[in-house]
Design brief:
With 157 residues, the protein is α+β, with helices and mostly antiparallel strands. It has one domain (29-149). Helix content is 27%, strand content 34%. It contains two helices and ten strands. The protein has helices at residues 3-26, 53-71, and strands at 31-38, 41-47, 82-88, 94-95, 101-103, 111-115, 118-125, 129-134, 137-141, 147-149. The chain has a seven-stranded mixed beta sheet with strand order 1-2-3-7-8-9-10, with helices on one face. A three-stranded antiparallel beta sheet has the order 4-6-5, with no helix packed on it. The longest helix has 24 residues, at 3-26. The radius of gyration is 20 Å and the shape is globular. The protein starts with a helix and ends in an 8-residue tail after the last strand.
């Protein structure tokens, strides 16, 4: 086998293993590690959350009733608004020490913080209804079940 064929074979094997890993990790179930609450905000710590924006929204639509029944979230304010933020649990709870950590007041310290790795949020308001915030932007769930991307609120000139 010549050098060119060896390089092609190595590239193929790398691609094959990367594709396999992506598929394997895509089918692992989402694990909810903990739920923290503050007012009408809920913070859900997760492992194995979907990678794609569409996967995250579909996961919510499929599991929102389970979250409500099992974890009693969302807890809307008296006027109906709520926010649920999904955070990657990463290395687990840590001490505040580092600059950019999110800490939970409903836990005793010192290890009551996580790295700030929000991956998805769902909010509801009287003006917009249900809105999903993902890496690619914000999407609104219309009353007819259609999901539409919201236009950017800011324009840089």
């Amino acid at each position: 086998m010549n050098t060119k064929n060896k390089k092609i074979m190595i590239i193929f094997l790398i691609f094959f293993f990367m594709a396999g890993y992506f598929l394997w990790s895509s089918f692992r179930p989402v694990k909810i590690v903990a739920v923290h609450e503050k007012g009408n905000h809920s913070y859900v710590l997760v492992r194995n959350f979907p990678y794609t924006d569409k996967g995250k929204i579909n996961w919510w639509l499929k599991n929102k009733n389970t979250l409500e029944n099992q974890y009693k979230i969302p807890k809307p304010a008296t006027y109906g608004s709520f926010t649920i933020i999904f955070w990657l649990f990463g290395d687990g709870y840590e001490e505040e020490g580092k600059y950019d950590r999110f800490c939970f007041e409903d836990m005793k310290g010192p290890a009551n913080c996580i790295e700030k790795e929000a991956v998805f949020s769902v909010s509801n308001s009287t003006n917009l209804g249900t809105v999903f915030t993902v890496e690619d932007g914000r999407y609104q769930l219309k009353k007819n079940g259609e999901i539409v991307k919201l236009k950017s609120e800011f324009t840089v000139k």
